[in-house]
Batch of 4 targets.
Target 1
Amino acid sequence: EIVMTQSPATLSVSPGERGTLSCRASQNINSNLAWYQHQPGQAPRLLIYDASTRASGIPDRFSGSGSGAEFTLTISSLQSEDFAVYYCQQYNNWPWTFGLGTKVEIK
Amino acid sequence: QLQLQESGPGLVKPSETLSLTCSLSGGSITSDSYYWGWIRQSPGRGLEWIGNIYYTGSTNYNPSLKSRVYISVATSKKSFSLSLRAVTAADTGVYYCVRDGAAVVTAPTAGMDVWGKGTTVIVST
């Protein structure tokens, strides 16, 4: 199975600042990668799919990049509602696998 | 707008079978663009993909659970179900049902774009 490694585990950012989250796959997954935001007590929300395509209704401060095995999620200017846990997930090979998440917290 | 709702017992005894159902409203389960899946999150852990099913009954399972898991679909009831046998405390967690476009080339959106609110299952005596 493909192992997804996210870094850092925790990202401390001040509101209004940029946040950069990384995700690495253990093998080439082309652009078959999604990013999700997970707020406590809520269902995860799809942010990005195909590595760089924003899902419906997602603000343009969220952007994804990368291909192959290295990916990045960038939040250009963090808003209060953006402090959450973010997961990457590959769908290039069965079984689908998630990273362990990056917690974005208020600095 | 499509909504998903999980239902099932919140408490299951060890060694018994966990059974959950996901009901759709506002959409079609026979769409040829999506699979229907199950995801879980155990306490203090991340998200784990359990498996999914196409409306035709074709399934994919996580190998780590494959010997214990069964997913079925009931198109007439617009629902799909998860059965997990021989549960232990490690199966405690929040279980989500999802719509998954990642495995279908014609899907408008890859990834899991619709989620149920999740249901908490505790495995305990």
Note: The mean pLDDT of chain B is 94.
Target 2
Amino acid sequence: DTGVSQDPRHKITKRGQNVTFRCDPISEHNRLYWYRQTLGQGPEFLTYFQNEAQLEKSRLLSDRFSAERPKGSFSTLEIQRTEQGDSAMYLCASSLGGAGGLWNEQFFGPGTRLTVL
Amino acid sequence: RKEVEQDPGPFNVPEGATVAFNCTYSNSASQSFFWYRQDCRKEPKLLMSVYSSGNEDGRFTAQLNRASQYISLLIRDSKLSDSATYLCVVNGMRFGAGTRLTVKP
């Protein structure tokens, strides 16, 4: 399977614990995105990378969230000191970079469902 | 004002009906527009890109109105399998909240 993969698929944690999620994009894609989605809402943008550079981070993202993409391949999203409000589906997507400010189709992974007790 | 806003829905329509969704965006400099489809408990998948001149793919037609800053999606001859949530996306990363469509027999 050459699609986007995410690990783990499910994570249950206690409030205050740290969690880390991994995303492996489609190999030739240079852009990687992280989103959070709650029931009845569309994906909420968190951050995105072009190669290894983190180019944009949502203003809604608290400093408890950090993401990395070392070597421009896989990416990790870490949430420190989790809160019950962090419970959501965390989606990763990848795409080819667009030219001239344009954006291409994103391919999504299956997501990691986080439950904070 | 949210960057991207969609018709709240839900839309419940009979098979064979024509249904249209609208989506407005706030950034007049936006250049890329898409419609994605998301099935229950699945990840979003691209339905179609939206081009300035409008575009059609089978029963689906997408249009862009830059002056009024909205995009639309028209589904003709609705099928049961069209039941899903439809998400509009502006500039690659700004998603609307989605409009849920249920097509009934």
Note: DSSP finds no helices and eleven strands in chain B.
Target 3
Amino acid sequence: KAGVTQTPRYLIKTRGQQVTLSCSPISGHRSVSWYQQTPGQGLQFLFEYFSETQRNKGNFPGRFSGRQFSNSRSEMNVSTLELGDSALYLCASSPGTGREPQHFGDGTRLSIL
Amino acid sequence: SQQGEEDPQALSIQEGENATMNCSYKTSINNLQWYRQNSGRGLVHLILIRSNEREKHSGRLRVTLDTSKKSSSLLITASRAADTASYFCATESGGGADGLTFGKGTHLIIQP
């Protein structure tokens, strides 16, 4: 069974631009969560989607948004990029609404110039 | 916000030795999980222990949970060079509205 796939792996953007990251969960998994990982703040929860509905949201500004499609694939969007948005963005999937355990992709490394 | 705090932040041991990492958390939890992250990669789930469990084993891994002290430990026995990675504890509490809450991790280096 294929694992969680995140595209692209690396991305370079400039301040003020917007970006869309993609995540394909493990087949049959309906829950997708997104995390931001930075050296300073560590791993922080962004949001979770289940059956195309946002179930939970972390403490991030409205510039961070996401969605989930009927095939459970998910995208997250960051608008008006700031230097502080440089991070590794990780997507994780799980079969249902529980988080036990979560299966992570290798992430998208976003660098803001 | 960080719920779990791992200790130590970094650990370097010789191959074959045992490695112990600790995690403390602040609020009551439903379960506690340990993950491993190799450099530049995603997280790999290692083991989950529920709040009503005290100890759990998986291969060379042993996890304990003390809810009265709000702490957990991860023991890796007979370490191997391939165990070099960062290890994170993650907690889920309440209705899970905050997702998994991760600590900042312990960076483990196994010297050959």
Note: The first strand of chain A starts at residue 5 and ends at 7.
Target 4
Amino acid sequence: GAGVSQTPSNKVTEKGKYVELRCDPISGHTALYWYRQSLGQGPEFLIYFQGTGAADDSGLPNDRFFAVRPEGSVSTLKIQRTERGDSAVYLCASSSGISNSPLHFGNGTRLTVT
Amino acid sequence: DAKTTQPPSMDCAEGRAANLPCNHSTISGNEYVYWYRQIHSQGPQYIIHGLKNNETNEMASLIITEDRKSSTLILPHATLRDTAVYYCIYLQGNTGKLIFGQGTTLQVKP
């Protein structure tokens, strides 16, 4: 079946610009997660949704980062006034939301801020 | 943050079993151990998870010690395609949030 889909796969933007990254979770998955991965590091948690609401946004680095999931399915990660340090691979994952069910990851969006 | 300890790198000969260790001495009684792997330019791929009993699926086996302070992922017949970074993780609380460490880079050699 279809896995987690992320678009675009690559995004190059100029410093100071606004970007949106999209995640289509596995159909029926109620839990959705965003992670960020810098070169040579493990993925770093950003935010977790259960349904439409952000259950845990403790990993968002600052208020330039925001994520929404208005209908409990597709999610968008929004970054305002991008900085070169935001360059990374942004990963999305989803799970059924049932306790201890595994997360399934997409292949990420590689964001480069020039 | 939930913390595991893994060796930074390991080698394995093609066709042999790869045994990847992980220490998780601070794990709580109801926290599952998860293993993921990541091949270059792809997202992490779920392999297996377990609580206290040993588990096996089509990809691997997971052996968890009786005191649950450590576990071993076993790839029974490693292939070149198993070359990847392997992460041992446990779920933090009841959020389903995975906290990744640095993982083990497994290099399978012909």
Note: Chain B has a mean pLDDT of 91.
